[in-house]
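I am going through a labmate's work and have reached the protein record below. What it holds is a sequence and that sequence's fold in token form. Please read both lines and tell me whether the tokens look consistent with the sequence. Do not assume that whoever made the record got everything right. Thanks in advance; the entry in question is below.
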Amino acid sequence: MRIGATGELARPGCNSFKCRGVYYVRMMKRLLTFLFSVSVATAISANDDPDKVYDLLVYGGTPAGVAAACSAAGEGHSVVLVEPYSFVGGMPANGLTHTDQRSLESLTGFWWDFNQRVITHYADKYGADSEQAKSTFEGNFAEPKVNQLVFEQMLAEHKTLEVITRKTLDAVMSTRSMPSRILGVVVRATGRPDAEKQTYKAKMFIDASYEGDLMAQSGVKYIVGREDQSVYGEPVAKDVPEGGDFLVQGYNYRWVMTHDPALMLPAPKPEGYDRAEFLPLLDLFKSGKITHVFGIQHPNGLEIPEGLAAVTSKAIYKLQPPLLPNRKADINDMSRGVVRLSMPDINDDYPDANEDKRQKIVDRHTRYQVGMLYFLQNDEAVPDEVRKDARSWGFCKDEWPAHNHLPEQLYIREARRMIGQHVFTQNDTRLTDEDVRIPLIKDSIAIGDYSHNCHGAGRTGGRFDGKHYGEFYVRNAPFQVAYGTLVPNEVTNLLVPVAASASHVGFGALRLEPIWTAMGQAAGLAVHLSLKNDKPVQLVDVPTLQALLHKHRAATLYVSDVPPGHPDFAAVQKLGMLGGLHGLYKPVDGKQPDWKPLFGQYAHALDQHEVDLNKPIDAALLKRWIDLAGKHPGDLKADGKTTRGDVIRALFSAH
């Protein structure tokens, strides 16, 4: 376990200002406000051309970065988005086209808007009833080129937003005070250490990169690796050695491949390919430990394309079910499989590595993952039926043509994790015996609906005769994300929605693109409030931020039957943040509601997380909601006719 930017590991109970006393909080607020206002003036005067000081600089064109940039620009701020790769969109534009979540009902705000645009794209191009439009799963499953296009269109709608690609962070300029303030960043051309450097100055900064590079170079404390159970008391951490370790979750490419003969391309021979590396695969096929090259894991009753196996661990390349539009598929690591695409034993040095060392780690993934398919498709020692299976899918002629039809980005599941004002852990998702909902997080700025999961943090044995360890998949109910998860302690004008403040176990539930995007949207709107009120990010008024999020149809509490487009969405969310939806349902005989699966990891909305707007309200609930609202319209009565929706609209719609 490595602690970056010098500092001790945060422990439970000491990850916010609250644990340091009321007097200390007041003094810190005054100090932060003073330093913030002084440093704004410093940032502007330090630049020879004040017109080139942006309101916000976002580093990283991930979906979270796009959401942050658009949200701040939508409030009228000048924004520059700096992306190290040649196009924006992060992993959804680089192969992760089955964007992980559990229920569609958890998708709100910017991600929900993105989904609607994806649906519209396919409906306009192929027809609303076309197979392509139906295959998007409400806009969540799209071809990478479409995801990229939609993100670019969303950015282009904002005239005060500038996008700069192929620029890598080289240095950070900041004040020497503590807490400090970032004044600007120095960038250079990606992959060219000797290239001419450029400086971009801004009042506020958001690090939306997967690696947390801006955060780390700003002097913010962070961690790389796993904490042992004594740090946060997380049940899943029980097997981590005392003192923790430096292991991070394994990486792999998320290819998109096709079985359409008109689109298929064979696997290219990667640089450094050595067939001897893959010869042990022959014994695995001969013994029956591996039976297929491609397979669908846990299809749960979905129709399987002809010639494709529904297997669990006996295939090498997992096709995420169901298929994408236009006969394509998202390829992933086979969870708990015999042969894995993820390589957790070689990527532990990646988070803190320089650009050159990172590229060498990426190249090793390419040689392994692409080289293995090249071997299976072409080597004469491979049995004919296996080669036929390997050739049944190929790379897509119309995806990533400038990059040999392979994604530009490796799937960085976990890198640095900030140690911020609130550390998100497994404890943030724990249920009690008193409610079907996880306890209310009053400063919530986003929601998530996914399991704590890790594809493995290490490996024993060789590539084809070993096994991942540190792998876990632990279900939990929908959860909330506290504002402090985005907020560093050491810098007053930086927010971190991706390499966010979380334990290794907690990060396994946060690290999904829809959740990161929700956190990015919250970060962009928090920047707006910080600038509007001349306050550091640590002092943003969270209830005001929540109201702004609700206005933008972003949830801060999971509600299964009032979607973002519903007219009562904001009012229901307001009530929920007052605690009005907790206690509506309690576990029956100690049993929590269980998920009803759709397919793969996807499921129907979780039972007993609905509001039931049309249900008549009873007297006890009416009194409780009136007390929470602090007002009582005289015509509200529990008369068997007045519904929950009537009461919510009367109490909260005007807020």
